[in-house]
Description:
By secondary structure, this protein is an alpha/beta fold.
Amino acid sequence: MSRILILPGDGIGPEIVEQAVNVLQCFQSYGLSIEIEHGLIGGAGYDQTGSPLPEQTLQLARASDAILLGAVGGPQYDSVPRHLRPEQGLLDIRGQLNLFANLRPALLYSQLAEASSLKPELVADLDLLIVRELTGGIYFGQPRANEKIDGVRRAYNTMVYDENEIRRIAHVAFKAAQKRDKRLCSIDKANVLEVSLLWRTVMDEVHSEYADVELSHMYVDNAAMQLVRAPKQFDVMVTSNLFGDILSDAAAMLTGSIGMLPSASLNEHNFGMYEPIHGSAPDIAGQGIANPLATILSVAMMLRYSLDQQEAADILEQAVIATLRSGFRTQDIAKSDEAAVSTVQIGEAVIERLQTLLTA
Ligand code: IPM
Ligand code: MG
């Protein structure tokens, strides 16, 4: 029996997570042995308990086998102090559970080639994986402060990595590359930053253990350009927390919509938290029009990485593709002449196809 903790969070989080929970329950009715619990995080946690990561949520998380998260944040929290902001709850749970390896696959479903902002031929069959370091770098570095000195306001953060942090994410990235096209591109800013020089050095050192993988290095500014110029040149990209945050949003758009990209955040033992890479989208929250596919695809990643259910993961991804093939589109992926369906409608369409595939 696997215990799965659901953290819907804020904005569109609860709506999209509901569809993903339906998917989990569908697998449950076909024999997957899981127990589903719910917890509070982000603004929802702050509103109800005063903390964006309530102690009880952390305890449930530690007792679970996998976590599914919706999204956190919203404009109503803009004036809340930083340590109580919804985003802090997300960063804290990543840090507390040591979820240092963030896998963000960007896969273009051929049915959506025209939804990409790039020409279809540039993105057709795009399949790249961004491996983002998630518990270090400038997001967590000390010292950090916002202060006033002699009447002048100043603020700073620290981008810091030690070699062990770089080494462990390097191993994850090389291993991922070994299972794919065996090409790894490490992204840094080694022409300017000491921390990037160390990053590059350690990547080269770890490379000696993975002779079958081709390693290249690229500066982050060039990588941003290459992602929108010729994204198919990449197989696996590995990078630090901040650079990965930025590049993964760009990569998401290549696939037609940020509403399509799942992610897995794993610790050393493949315990993981799974979440769509998009945010809480407060502008469309509560309207029932958000795209739940990134969250549903995050369930597929959960089945694959944490629950060891490869076949179920494959079947779920097939159900999503079949749904797209049948023409179901939420507003973010619909062409101007196509009618958009609701969050619930596309969720139900996935379940229908899933049931067919599971019965077959
Ligand atoms: C992401 C998000 C988060 C991040 C925010 C919500 C803190 O943008 O998961 O990419 O910056 O990591
Ligand atoms: Mg982001």
